[in-house]
Amino acid sequence: MRRTALLASAALLTGLLPLLSAGAATADEPAPVPVDRFEGEVPFANPPAGGLFTWGGDADDPPALALTPRTDAPEGAEVLTGTYDISGYGGFTHDFAFDQPAHDWSAHKGIRFWWDGQNNAKKVAFEIKDGGANGEASELWTTSFTDDFTGWKQIEIPFTDFTYRTDYQPVGGIDQVLGLTQMWGYALTLPAGVKGWFAMDDVELYGKADQSLRASVTTDSAVHPVKEGATATVKLSVATTGAAPIDEPVTVAYESAGGTAEPGKDYAPVKGEITFPAGTTSGTTRTIQVPTLRDKSAEPAETIPLKLTVTGAKAPAETPQIVIDAHGLPYLDPKLPVKKRVADLVSRMSLEEKAGQMTQAERGAIGAGGDIASYDLGSLLSGGGSTPTPNTPAAWAKMIDGYQLRAQATRFQIPLIYGVDAVHGHNNLTGATIMPHNIGIGATRDPGLAEKAGAVTAAEVRATGIPWDFAPCLCVTRDERWGRSYESFGEDPALVKSMETVIQGLQGARDGKDLKDDDKVLATAKHFVGDGGTEYGSSTTGSYTIDQGVTKVTRQQLEAVHLAPYQTAVDRGIGSVMPSYSSLDILGDGQGPVKMHARADMINGVLKGRMGFDGFVISDWNAIDQLPGDYASHVRTSVNAGVDMMMVPYSYKDFRTTLIDETTAGRVSAKRIDDAVSRILTQKFKLGLFEKPYADTSGAAQIGSAGHRAVAREAAAKSQVLLKNAAGVLPLKKSQKVYVAGSNADDLGNQTGGWTITWQGASGKHTDGTTILQGMRNAGGDVTYSKDASAPTSGYDVGVVVVGETPYAEGVGDVGNGNDLALTPADQAAVDKVCAAMKCAVLIVSGRPQLIGDRLGQIDALVASWLPGTEGDGVADVLYGKRAFTGQLPVTWPKSETQLPINVGDTSYDPQFPYGWGLTTQTKVPGGGEATLKALTLAARAADRTGSTQLGRAAVTKARLLVQQSAGSTITPALAKPFAEADHLLLTAHYTQALTKLLEAYRAR
């Protein structure tokens, strides 16, 4: 008989009673109620059926389960056993059947089970599923137990031990109340990083739910800031599981005691008792008021803990604190120059407080946030995919405001600076406007559009309470095997420099005067320096092949290629800089490869010294752990090298303690600490955080708005690079019958790429947007779609096959790490079938060039679509001629992987398509051949002489289009090399030289 918990028949329960007699208690305490006996009554089955099933982060992570006979079974003849070897995450679940009613556990104290201990000291997470439509759409509540024993042990978990999961909720959460009246099952998450096995038996509900276990007293906040002389109000509420009225009275005795404020001088002491009578409804609130007193002295903030003693219910998790705001101190005066405010504040801070300002933790590591004040933390971040539940603008703002409130409990109430990787829009936020990745922005060759994209990103990020963006990436990508290629604007430092207008879009004015505005954020230039030049095979990070590897360059190459964009960033007023994970090996300097986080010569010497960077340097995620030596060496080496704030997501306590120790011992100087803290505080003051630490959500209505999406749509359109267009296949006509195929035609996740909602991104629909297919339909096209081209192909005028990559981020996407540059067999088959049946255009949606040469002859039109973001309408705009194709290659398109690395300026240069290539459907291409080119050369000379950028660019652009037209489909090395170099010369405003190169390319055709 298949059984689900609490729905057992009366006969079955009667039969079980003898088994439960040992646990069956008095008449006041109900007998235990079985959930799982593991005697075969519950099958192994996936939802929506009731049963046990496994899950994991990848194919190797789910455990193997079995029902195994054991003579030592605590109950019955069989137990549940399993083996596991988990690298990511994995575990198993028992979901109750979706077509049956949910179960009521509210009469019981908790849940218990037998566990065969292995004494491995590992924690096992235990989760229950409350409310919602079913087991996979419920609210998750979690706790854990530690396997620190040997043999069978009964694990008892009161329901009061369960806490609401803040890192993940399948439906974004429901009411955040553990009701226990609609339960859908349980799940266990097994330990990762250790190979093991387990045995489990007899899951059951036990005990009687008395009021102190199902009723709780909560406060409206753990921290209550109040201006000196005002009265603080603390709200107390009583709540019950299931929202039932309380059966017995609940009393709360309160007393102001302890803290740094002095009773009678700073506040009037309070003491008393509040009673919630029997029958009080759940959610009822009472208030306690604490008057503060005014004096004439300037003071830092002072705390008044409000001690609460609760009878008849669970007490609040924390003692609420009233904080009398700091007042009268110079650093609080917004009329003073920032420099004076910083100097005043730094002079008052202890070493411990300064070390805290230099420490950045991940939101997922700090729980409710009490450590913010305990460790004087200066910053928090959300890593990729680290989001509140639900993932909405309001939830982001509420979460960050809660963290900022915690910072108000510190002596000087220094606000946090919260950071995110918003690298192509506010990409962690569901519903945000997602721009093309930087590789596509580079293809637009439109600095004004890059600035507008940055402005949209800044507005959406700041509207959720976040003042700091870890962008833009100023990497100069030199090898398309790099998994971060799409984070670069291109392979030419001149192109990267031209796109740094994005900094003004993010930050506003170069002097930082706009940073306090509600639509601007602090920007971060990353990754300093040489991250795009790492040598293939040099990475020592896991299975990465090139990311985080070694960049081997001469001093001249370093200056010309990799450093150049950073001087531009400094000149544009960039507020922060992030060093690279990679190592730098400057040939001839005698140092060999040195991790960038340890290169004082580059951070202190070049960036802060020669370039004059006056912002602060933030490390990359746990990057100091890659330095040689022990942890103390990691800390002092990186800080002494010039890193001002350390991103130590889960080791923030260790970092802060070690930094204090190293400074006390004299291995890090007090002067260096003061410099780092001053740099950090300067940006906090510029951002206006001392005056307005909380989120200004007035711009939240514009997140994902039509106006913002119009910018992303324009960027998507202008990023499309038309590489080939035989017989004018593009643009399409609305009258044509179009056959659409390919893996990326109707996949929003694939076209947005990595760093979208989660770190790695994901295929499928995970946010709001328009796929390329839908964009074509929106454009009025007569479209038939067959993803794998299995539908009949007869009767169509033209085919559009959209192929390319699936999402990845960082070294996970390195070629050789499970990736290559070839189309998948399915994509190849779709191209072959459609292009054999009709005229065809192939769109490649990818973060880097894909090898297409063996099929180029059968393809009539070829488009590099890059990763266009959420606005597939923009791609359709150029396909149907609403906008012209104007994009140009930001990187060289290779013929084969053996050519890599291949870049503009190489001595040997024989690409499929050269850097800067891009056909147009905008205007009639100039004719006249060499005579026209000579006339354009005269115009370029005039532009060089007069400094006319407009005239120079126009002359070079016309000449480029003429050369492309004349070359047709034959691109020889003799043509490709000067053609690519001409585009570099255009970007560096050498117009006559650019025309000379284009004339050379024309003659070589």
TrEMBL record:
<dbReference type="InterPro" id="IPR051915">
    <property type="entry name" value="Cellulose_Degrad_GH3"/>
</dbReference>
<dbReference type="InterPro" id="IPR003644">
    <property type="entry name" value="Calx_beta"/>
</dbReference>
<protein>
    <recommendedName>
        <fullName>beta-glucosidase</fullName>
        <ecNumber>3.2.1.21</ecNumber>
    </recommendedName>
</protein>
<dbReference type="InterPro" id="IPR002772">
    <property type="entry name" value="Glyco_hydro_3_C"/>
</dbReference>
<dbReference type="InterPro" id="IPR036962">
    <property type="entry name" value="Glyco_hydro_3_N_sf"/>
</dbReference>
<dbReference type="Pfam" id="PF00933">
    <property type="entry name" value="Glyco_hydro_3"/>
</dbReference>
<keyword id="KW-0732">Signal</keyword>
<dbReference type="InterPro" id="IPR008979">
    <property type="entry name" value="Galactose-bd-like_sf"/>
</dbReference>
<dbReference type="InterPro" id="IPR038081">
    <property type="entry name" value="CalX-like_sf"/>
</dbReference>
<dbReference type="InterPro" id="IPR017853">
    <property type="entry name" value="GH"/>
</dbReference>
<dbReference type="Pfam" id="PF01915">
    <property type="entry name" value="Glyco_hydro_3_C"/>
</dbReference>
<feature type="domain" description="Calx-beta">
    <location>
        <begin position="204"/>
        <end position="309"/>
    </location>
</feature>
<keyword id="KW-0378">Hydrolase</keyword>
<keyword id="KW-0106">Calcium</keyword>
<dbReference type="InterPro" id="IPR001764">
    <property type="entry name" value="Glyco_hydro_3_N"/>
</dbReference>
<dbReference type="InterPro" id="IPR005087">
    <property type="entry name" value="CBM11"/>
</dbReference>
<dbReference type="GO" id="GO:0008422">
    <property type="term" value="F:beta-glucosidase activity"/>
</dbReference>
<dbReference type="InterPro" id="IPR019800">
    <property type="entry name" value="Glyco_hydro_3_AS"/>
</dbReference>
<dbReference type="Pfam" id="PF03160">
    <property type="entry name" value="Calx-beta"/>
</dbReference>
<dbReference type="GO" id="GO:0030245">
    <property type="term" value="P:cellulose catabolic process"/>
</dbReference>
<dbReference type="GO" id="GO:0016020">
    <property type="term" value="C:membrane"/>
</dbReference>
<comment type="similarity">
    <text>Belongs to the glycosyl hydrolase 3 family.</text>
</comment>
<feature type="signal peptide">
    <location>
        <begin position="1"/>
        <end position="27"/>
    </location>
</feature>
<keyword id="KW-0326">Glycosidase</keyword>
<dbReference type="GO" id="GO:0008810">
    <property type="term" value="F:cellulase activity"/>
</dbReference>
<keyword id="KW-0677">Repeat</keyword>
<dbReference type="InterPro" id="IPR036881">
    <property type="entry name" value="Glyco_hydro_3_C_sf"/>
</dbReference>
<dbReference type="GO" id="GO:0007154">
    <property type="term" value="P:cell communication"/>
</dbReference>
<dbReference type="Pfam" id="PF03425">
    <property type="entry name" value="CBM_11"/>
</dbReference>
